[in-house]
Amino acid sequence: MSQGVDVVGVYVHDQDEALAFYVGKLGFRVHTDARNGDYRWLTVQHPEQPSFQLGLFAPGPPVHDAATASTLNAMVAKGAMPPLVMAVDDCRAAYERMVAAGVEFVQEPVARYGTVDAGFRDPSGNGWKMIQTRAAR
Amino acid sequence: MGEHRDQQDPALLRRLLRAKDRMDAASHEAWPIRRLAKVSGVSEAHFARSFKQAFGLPPHRYLLTRRVERATALLRETDLSITEIAFVTGWASLGTFGRTFRDVTGRSPGAVRARERAAAHQLGRVPACIVSAAHRPDLTSAVSEKRRRMERGNVRSHNPEVT
Hints:
The complex is a heterodimer. By secondary structure, chain A is an alpha/beta fold. Chain A contains three helices and eight strands. The N and C termini of chain A lie far apart (33 Å). The mean pLDDT of chain A is 95. Chain B has helices at residues 10-25, 33-40, 44-55, 59-77, 82-88, 94-105, 109-118, 128-135, 139-142, 145-158. Chain B is elongated, with a radius of gyration of 17 Å. By secondary structure, chain B is an all-alpha fold. Chain B has ten helices and no strands. In chain B, 67% of the residues lie in helices and 0% in strands. The longest helix of chain B is centred in the middle third of the chain and has 19 residues, at 59-77. Chain A binds chain B through residues 13, 67, 70-71, 73-74, 76-79, 83, 85, 104, 106-108, 110, 112-114, 117, 119, 121, 123-125, 127, 129, 131, and chain B through 3-4, 7-8, 10-11, 13-14, 16-18, 20-22, 24-25, 54-55, 123-124, 127-130.
């Protein structure tokens, strides 16, 4: 890929906590973890998707003033950020694996629309839909 | 302090979101304040006010929107009878279901079933949660205050655990 979307970020309340979640529980890998003073550029990658980075960014200085950071953290915590969708080849198997790892599911796997989907949140409140790419078995 | 006075603590919001998620996952169940407050780890006295401040409507009204939303989906996607749908989605009586459903959507369950089936469009490509959210009735503006008061009375009498 020479052109396309390279990084999309989510706001997280705490980058260490987010790293432990996305890497430790979901199996992502760290792509970049660079600091400059208080600022930390942190991106992770799905092991099967090397062309895309998910940014785990914490609201705060120097990008945001305190009030803005507080608002952003509140919006994430109340689940108001845009939906995120993860594709898996076996939703129920992924669910079992992730529950065992301590992922907080908000919806157990449901077979519908010819596939299977489930829902979970990251520790900050970002909501993920996990959708099976193959037809339900 | 001034500009932050209305800003709720993210940690509290995250716990309130957990209660909202639990209602989403099982809207047919009874969700008394005691149960919701326990999920959120806050006092019962604190819960309803905090929830409303965070999400714009009281927890029991949020629950009603989810039940109506689920009933609408079942009307659209299944052949269950309206009576069956009423009970599956958590209402204690068919009468309360029909009345609340009309209050929220402006139509009867039967009319919604007919309309939804006629307009069966390509929602299959949009994740189900997004479809649900897009179809979620907006109770804060869709129901007139008069009907709201009447309905509140009905809901209390049939479903005291919801409030």
